[in-house]
Design brief:
Length: about 300
Amino acid sequence: MQLKLGTILFTLLFLLLVQFTRAQFYFYNNKHLEEDWVWETGFTTGLANCLTDVGGKKGIGKKFIKDINWNQSRIVVGLFVAANWQSVITARIDINFLQLSGNDAVLKNTPGIAQGRYQRNLSFKTNVTELIGLLELHPLFINTNVQAPAFSPYITAGAGIFFYQPQANINNVWYSLRELHTEGQGFKEYSGRDEYKKFSYAFPVGMGLKYDAGYWLSFRLEILHRFTTTDYLDDVSTNYIDPLIFEKYLSQTLLPVAIQLANPSGSAVNSQRGNPRNKDGYFTGALKIAIVVNRKNK
């Protein structure tokens, strides 16, 4: 579903790009003059959050924004470069640095079914570095016979890659969960659970509002959600494994760490630890500030 949505959006944006590139002219308003292609470069700052198996809100796990714990939001910073064609379509490359986290402990004193997640007592954090390419469509600029508006709403979609490594804490020491194989990933006893990689693919979809503050400065407010191809952003996906199996694969140093972090609540072997039916995702709400490189003041 994620790939189909990305394919449809990219096809529509490509067809629009082909249609509009038939004309060559200067576009202007009463403040500035610009060529067909205008370049921007700038930086991003804002907040990031995620939708994974860990944490969430009270009750049974819900869809998207209904299951977000806003107190788990963390800072995102980044850089980007963009090429705008007649202010209608923008091709953009972003590199962003952010941290994601989740903790079942936030569900303390929550009644009902969420008590099970609180008692599970799992937590994680992961630093994420992502490189994504995006296309923006600015519909207000499609009719080029009108004066360019200062504010321009837009929709955006793209694809990219991100690097991550979930960790958890024991006595203020952080351990890489991937190296602990907490759900038997890579163990022959669990042949269907491959060891997950340190990177995965992201398919961002979002919307924003761009403001041209002058011929050399622009701002964007943007919400961007990433669908991913991994369910191990938080190192949680399937069922608890037999802790005795860790002895066959891990050192004596890592053995007690793996047993504790894999199953801190002492849940039954093969009982549910996570939900493999839904991939993990993350999103950002950001302010983007850009310098316009080649626009001329009129």
